[in-house]
Amino acid sequence: MPPPPLLLLLAALVLAAARPGCEPAWDPAGGCPRLAAVDSATCVDLQLRTCSDAAYNQTAFPTLLEHRSREVVESSSEYVLLSVLHHLLEGQCNPDLRLLGCAVLAPRCQGGQVRRPCRHVCEGLREACQPAFDAIDMAWPYFLDCGRYFASQQEGCYDPLEKLRGGLDEEEALPSGHPATFIHFTHHSYAQMVRVLKRTAARCAHIAKTYSIGRSFDGRELLVLELSSRPGQHELMEPEVKLIGNIHGNEVAGREILIYLAQYLCSEYLLGNDRIQRLLNTTRIHLLPSMNPDGYEVAAAEGAGYNGWTSGRQNAQNLDLNRNFPDLTSEYYRTASARGARSDHIAIPQHYWWGKVAPETKAIMKWMRAVPFVLSASLHGGDLVVSYPFDFSKHPQEEKMFSPTPDEKAGPSAWTLVPLPPELQMFKLLARAYADVHPMMMDRSENRCGGNFLKRGSIINGADWYSFTGGMSDFNYLHSNCFEITVELGCVKFPPEEALYTLWQHNKEPLLNFVEMVHRGIKGVVMDKFGKPVKNARISVKGIRHDITTAPDGDYWRLLPPGSHIVIAQAPGYSKVIKKVTIPARMKRAGRVDFILQPLGTGPKNFLLGPRRNGPGGAGPHGEPEEPGQEPLGARRLPEASGSKPWWWSYFRSLGQHQPRWLLKY
Ligand SMILES: [Zn+2]
């Protein structure tokens, strides 16, 4: 994706004259006069491209910044800022901030009066978006001064973001060529959900595709949107992630958030967002917004805001889908003490099929067989916490009790007898990748909803919370290569529409951060000496009684915390190969570790011991340097050496003497 033609835009803009005005940089004493009451105005058509999706279509001159014509507005540094803000903030806070700025640069005109945008909207955005500005060392734009250019509700203000939360019908009326980021933060009926997913796949046809994994009991397609650089196919060594919403039909926040996420990923990819392009170019992401569309219909009939605890939870057969998976956890506990007992790829017991198996459950199991998933999250509602397996308690009376998986209790360093600190256990790392960047999960104030999970950092072992059998997460871990966590998104299971936008804002970064975790640990290919892939080879890690198996192309992914690990590859008919790998603490890209297996009775007698101890240079298991592009936002964009301007200044350089010095902090 080439960068947008910003330079052309800037070159055209700089030709026009600047306008007089009152900016902090020009008046350090802050002596700008307060805006006088607005008198009658002449309304004209709003023709600014950057503001074409505003909630109104009439504006007036002079503007609130005293710009006297459209040309003057277009040549202003304020307008240039709005045009590039999306790129500067990597998609954060947009289109909201742009629309807020438009409300000042191109004020709404109605009935011969200029109307000012609401102060409380400005204040809310400023609170939410200030960190994004801090991260790139940019000052808050002076023209988004909430006290100065905005009005109170008593003064008859309007909400410039109203349309963002409006109904789907308006979407049909949008002008073509409209920016692709327009997400409607509303509830979606089944038909609307299908339409949005299909439309998103059409808009991003080169990176997105919809497919059905089966039908619900009442015959609704279980529709998945897949995003990757080559949709429709598994690519060698590209890890696969699934995100599942609405397994309980009345817990709808996850369903909506995944519908928004689908549109967000598509739009951001098209807009050239580095992080999203990197993510989708290296990861195959499958979104199933609704696993229980029949239950949703029952809950939706009672309406948003209804906080009934169970209506619509089950599928149309009255089965709780998160209790309907094979109970392999009991199987695991029964055999765990036996020598050589394993906690992976446990077969489904025959008697499971004698019971009622929901078509939705079957569809998920079939899906898991077809795709080599590495990581997964199931999105619920009713509390605010991230839980990780096991969900079924090992307590003999099934009372709640900390019941960790082998990936947690036995540290990967167990073979060296060094106890593993809790913060370096894989399931905790996965849960924290979500909770640690979720503003409400980390909120220490009284605003926080739900049980008191704050002391635990808003993460908990499922069985330590409450125990149940037949859950989807336990099944993922014990039957497949996939690690799944459960996210409780908030206390209200069916939130009112006006809460959806905030829910999305709170969960967007946690979801991205979580999905990026699929690149932790190691990955590689297992092949024979002729280079032929070996499928179903076992990858074991000493100290963790949980193997991963290779996919049909011989590729595998093993999520592992930082540290040293002994990794063993083996397959029937071949001798074992053992390697020692060291994963540096800050490494955010899976280290590549391939294995070449020798047929039994030939080749080197037993195994190749390849101690690949790496120096402190942050190298991967094969000595490759850490990828610099994987640094978190902020770390990479520290202020430059004294005297030089921040990286984003180049966007404004061509404005000459009209450069927005008011954006500079130093
Ligand atoms: Zn639930």
TrEMBL record:
GO cellular component, one term: extracellular space
Gene transcribed to yield this protein: CPZ
Keyword Glycoprotein: yes
UniProt-recorded name of the protein: Carboxypeptidase Z
Domain Peptidase M14: 186-518
Signal peptide span: 1-18
Location within or outside the cell: Secreted, Extracellular space, Extracellular matrix
Similarity section: Belongs to the peptidase M14 family.
Region of interest (Disordered), residue spans: 606-642
InterPro entries registered for this protein in UniProt: CarboxyPept-like_regulatory (IPR008969), CARBOXYPEPT_ZN_2 (IPR057247), Frizzled_dom (IPR020067), Frizzled_dom_sf (IPR036790), M14_CPZ_CPD (IPR034239), Peptidase_M14 (IPR000834), Peptidase_M14_domain (IPR050753)
GO molecular function term, any single one: zinc ion binding
